[in-house]
Amino acid sequence: MERPAFFAVLTVLLCVLCSGARAQEEPPQVAATQQLQIIEGAEHFAKLETGEVTLWFDARVAEHQSKGVHDQRLLVVLEGQVLALADCSSDGPCSLALTDDVLRELVGGGAFFAVWPAAVPAQVGHPLPAALGADGAPIDPKALVPEMVVIFDRDVISGKNLDTAADHHELPIRYPGAVKSVSCDYAACRAGKDRVLLFHIDPAAPIVKMRYSLADGFRRAAGSKQLAEGSLKLDLERCSVRAPDIPLLSRTTDHRFFVRIPRECSDASIEDIVIRTRPAVQVDVRRELLAEDSAARVLELVFHRVPPGVESLRLMLFEKNGELRRLGDTRIRVTDDYEPVQVSLKVDGVGVVSVIPSNRDAALGLRYGSGIWLDDIEVADRPGFYSARRRDYGWQIRGEEGVSGNVPLRLVYKPEAAAAFFEGATQSPESMELVSFETDVVLPVQRVNIPQRLIAGGKASFFHVTCGTGADTRKLAPGKLERISFSVRDSCRIVFERDRIPMQAGTQRLRVQAGGFNEIILLEPGTGPLTVAVPAGDRVEYDTLSVLIAHDLLSGHYALGSSQKLGEEVRYRVLLSDSWVRISVTTALPTGLFRFGPTDINGSVPLSAGALARVSIVQRSGRDFPVGLEMGPFGTDLSGSAGFSMVAGVGLSVPVLNRNTALQASFNIHAWLEYSPTRDVAGDTPLAFLFGPSFTVGQVSTTF
User: Fold this and answer.
1) DSSP class of residue 3?
2) What number is the average pLDDT over the span 277-306?
């Protein structure tokens, strides 16, 4: 059995055996029997000695220390039966190991130790054999009973504060008959069997010091020593001081608190009441409140600074009447675990944010090491920074509009127990705010910016693009190619309608690319439009002017929620021309024409050259329609019998280089009717049909 477990079993047995001998007012601090005793919680006193036997409780060993023990035996005897024995075969201590059963009998008081001649045979579990002396008479076993000594591990007399208004006081003695005599300073005292009486206490004395001596068989533990005397100090208490059962918050300043005292113990004004504490803290009496009970006085106190690192303060009240007269004291708890261990902010539709929003409400979550602070600590408003309201889910907080900067949360200590202290009172404080303090967490106050949809119902949500002047100004549709006259190419504008941005959306950060304009625009909710000109720059007719509007999502400006659609952009395209028909003149080099006609002229035309006029339709994209009407003079068959022809028909043109410039080059396929006056002179048929490719270089054109 381990030592702590053995002591636990032994203590329970001893407590049951000696329960009738304990003091009535307070259980004694030791357990004892008529033979053995054990001190609760003090193992270093678990040793009992007599002249011949030493019993060690912690090792469960008994030693016989008499000289010449080699011819003796150490036995434990119960009702004539041998419970345990040890043969001593040499000089020196003779050790006997004690089993649980043997110890139980020893503690119960039925068994005892005996020293017996070694020559007499003895056996455990059998009767003790008779031993004869020199005269032939039987030898009686010699019982070695350890001396009974009760050792106390604290003061023998139960001390308490003394109320000087009482005629006398009775202080219980922890073990009846333990105190032999007492003497007191500033009071008369007398020791009885189970209590000490005090009377005639000097009311001007700060304390009563009592000295006492212990009766035989009793000792008081003092470190490793056992003393037969002791002393204690008894504080005088003229008032029963009551305080709310709440702790003070350490490291705080101007901490309010309240105490209640009977009116009969002091009628001094609050200016004549002095407060002192241990450890020392500066405390002032601010005012006196009216209590429901006219026989009581309620004082409001202010602690200038509650010290850190202490668990409680002893609060003592004095009155000034020539000299300080002690009224009474009370003890107040102090705690330092009131700071929130976690602060969180959540915004609907966004989630967790790291700022106090100034444009929308946020749910403020506070988590403490102890749940009591959820009700006892409230979030206070900070005018100029934020306001807070309690809600079913916790706290709602919102920064003031237009405010930015960093601010710690201000919390207020308003314990419910403080309010309960004034239940039924005719007057209570206007507020139960005992102290306010700032958290170590500092939060920025700013807008939470949420990107707004750029397109709603197929239209731009809070902006539009216009082009034109005067009565010809018109709004453009996003995603659709629009045509405007090249002459008004610098008239396009982006109009941002700020009143259509919700205030709770915050500042919109937009990336705008329009012609030569490529900038980031911060758009605040408000009234009145914001207009941005779209410069056309160095453009030529039929150029396309693009306008792109999108959110700038890479700057960390926005608080992005999981349900938001990102990457949205709006694009406008404007064709700088209002002409529909283009007439152009170019040089053509047909290299593989084939002539269809009478048999004598039918066949390929190896090499031709000429000028070609072309009429085409300009599409909305600004490009010519590939098929157009063509006509012009040509020199045909330049590598053989050269001729002159006039052609007219249709052609398919595909620009390959320098589109819409004077150096445009194109591949073409033609289908022409040919009239050749040179063949008419020779008697051949002047009319024919030409089909084939050509390569055109250069272009002079006009539109209308």
Assistant:
1) H
2) 87
